[in-house]
């Protein structure tokens, strides 16, 4: 069964506040996504993106919540 991890909102980006842990401590960041997070797979993808963009290892998302919806 294929699941949809992100519900698309055409012409908009969802901005989330994300708290996470990583191999050397904890952090917070704003993350922009092209859709709403509606599945755990999107959370895993967000952790991988944080690892890549911030050069971190072993990122685990602790919490996230939507801040705003922006037009692209």
Q: What is the mean pLDDT? A: 87
Domain unit count: 1
CATH architecture: Roll
The percent of residues in helical segments reads 10-25%
Given helix and strand content, the structural type is alpha+beta
How many strands, what sense, and barrel or not for the largest sheet?
3 strands, antiparallel
General shape:
elongated
User: How large, in whole angstroms, is the Cα Rg?
Assistant: 12 Å
Structure description:
With 72 residues, the protein is of the alpha+beta class. The chain has a single domain (6-71), classed as Roll (Ubiquitin-like (UB roll)), CATH 3.10.20. The chain has 1 helix and 5 strands, in the order E-E-E-E-H-E. It has one helix spanning 40-54, and strands at residues 6-8, 12-22, 25-33, 35-37, 60-71. Strands 3-2-5 form a 3-stranded antiparallel β-sheet. It has a two-stranded antiparallel sheet with strand order 1-4. Strand 2 (12-22) and strand 3 form a beta hairpin. The chain is elongated, with a radius of gyration of 12 Å.
List keywords for this structure.
72 residues; alpha+beta; 1 helix
TL;DR?
The protein is built from one helix and five strands.
What is the topological layout?
Blueprint: E1 6-8, E2 12-22, E3 25-33, E4 35-37, H1 40-54, E5 60-71
Antiparallel strand pairs: 1-4, 2-3, 2-5
């Amino acid at each position: 069964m294929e699941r949809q991890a992100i519900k698309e909102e055409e012409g908009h980006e969802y901005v989330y506040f994300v708290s996470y842990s990583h191999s050397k401590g904890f952090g917070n960041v704003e993350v922009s996504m092209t859709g709403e997070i509606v599945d755990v797979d999107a959370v895993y993808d967000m952790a991988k993106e944080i690892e890549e963009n911030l050069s971190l290892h072993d990122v685990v998302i602790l919490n996230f919540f939507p801040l705003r919806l922006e037009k692209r």
